[in-house]
Amino acid sequence: VIRLATREAYATGEAANATLxxxxxxxxxxxxxxxxxKDDPEPQSFNQRQLWxxxxxxxxxxxxxxxxxxxxxxxxxxxxxxxxxxxxxKLLEYIGSRRKGRYRTNSR
Length: 108
Hints:
It is a single chain. By secondary structure, this protein is mainly alpha-helical. The chain folds into two domains: 38 residues; 58 residues, Winged helix-like DNA-binding domain superfamily/Winged helix DNA-binding domain (Arc Repressor Mutant, subunit A). It contains four helices and two strands. It has a two-stranded antiparallel ribbon. A hairpin with a 6-residue loop joins strand 1 and strand 2. Pfam families: HTH_DeoR. Keywords: Transcription, Transcription regulation.
């Protein structure tokens, strides 16, 4: 008797899940919207320090975050963040070892 009641409860639950599957909620992970903002690329806008740094690298000079700090009077963390943004946007690449490497503009 207990097994029969358990089976009926299980079957009832399965039937309820089937109706829920037909009417999925908006935040259901299986429902993929046509236009997902997470996958849209954000427009790139760079600050003056980043544009200046790119120009110096394009001229062929060896520059690092220290030069940004000295020229623009910002913290080392801000300078590194500026360079990191350029690296992630694929405008710059770092070649060589950590100690003797340098930045160069991406040739793509």
